[in-house]
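Researcher: I need the complex structure. Ligand is zinc ion. Inputs:
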Amino acid sequence: MRNILRKALAVVAGCALSTSAWASHPDYVFLFIGDGMGPGQVMTAQNYLRAVTQRPDTTLLMTSLPVTSLCTTYSASSPVTDSAAAGTAIATGTKTRNNMLGMASDTTALRSIARDFQQLGYGIGLVTNVAADDATPAAFYANVPDRGMYYEIGRQAAESGYEFIAGAGLRGFSKQGQPTGLASHFDRYNVKIVHGLDELAQTDANKVVLLSPDTIHNYRINYAIEARQGDMSLPSMTRAAIDHMMRVRPQQFFMMVEGGAIDHAGHANDGASVIGDVLDFDRALREAYNFYLAYPEQTLIVVTADHETGGMSLGNNATGYWANTAVLANQHVSKDTFSDLCNKLSDPTWDEMERMLRRDFGFWDAIPLTDKQTSLLKDMFDATFVTHSAKGQQALYNYYNPFAATVFDVMDSHSGIGWTSIKHTGNPVPVFAVGVGSELFSPMSDNTEISARIREACKKYQHTPVMMR
Ligand SMILES: [Zn+2]
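Model: Output:
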């Protein structure tokens, strides 16, 4: 009723009038994408939640939604997709080759569903906890043959006309240490760049790019397990995005929220960080779900992933049938941070390292180690810090210190988390949905069908063509 009144008022106020084939239900569409979030990541996080709360019936919000399905993710060039091809498939409904963004394999520019919504008068919000020019958010506004073209991607973000784009940073601001002039391009298009939620609260601009106040780590906000007081988080950014859209486009909006750090932790084979960020993603979903509860007749929420990362499983050869994810509550530092710390240490003693492992991983205290595991750690400590003979572990986003990699192997042998890869896999990903048109997401699908089903939901629930603002 409120919406009908608003629409009537908009007509009376003499706003521009047009009609549309698929206005106006649902008026609020949320698409949540967990980057690298396969069924293993989701179910391990749920298992962890049950283990630490000791409530075997506890569920994640996403797994409690009424519609649950699966989605295939292969790209035009490989059974194992990257985020650029998968993001393009989800955003545009067309398969492309790995590395390509918003373009078909023959470099024809593709149109994202966000553009269609924009043309219909919806406001557009994009939120991620990795870089705002990373492949997943960029698939909704950019058309480039290579996902690494950060300056061009940044220019297209400025020109998109979207009301809200949020992420850790924009890597196109500088190239080889030199400013590129990208910031002034945002000025030219009346887009206000703010750093942090406090600055956001002080602006009344209609078009905003929200970035982290931490300008050094422009590729990712801190993992949830090591977030500091006052850090931006995916839930707080999602809340801010909803508030912004309700201020500037209260009638209708489309919002994509990406949990991008799940993928980074998967590449690192860091179980606790994956779980922490899946839980954070679920908390961000809660923000949209609360919105859905306020507008249940007008809201559609779809949750999926672009691909799986790491071949993550619950259960490995070390633990067999005795996986125990609750031990991961003792891990307070990510593999990336711990590895960087190890690389900076000069001539540490074993006693110092032992204290650190007790504090940051609970080894020997909350997690009793076998003599064999203690010897393994001591031997690798010597090989890393004394004889310097050990080789590190290469992954996509980092080269892990050999001692740090061994610490995480020991952690896995207690938690029972298994990995088959430091890259993506072709495993299918989950789809969850609630709200207007959510039943359309029930059959198993391919990632090219996500946007088609969102369009279908909008068509199916249209009433007589309405005046668009
Ligand atoms: Zn990845």
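Model: Summary of the prediction. The chain has a mean pLDDT of 92.
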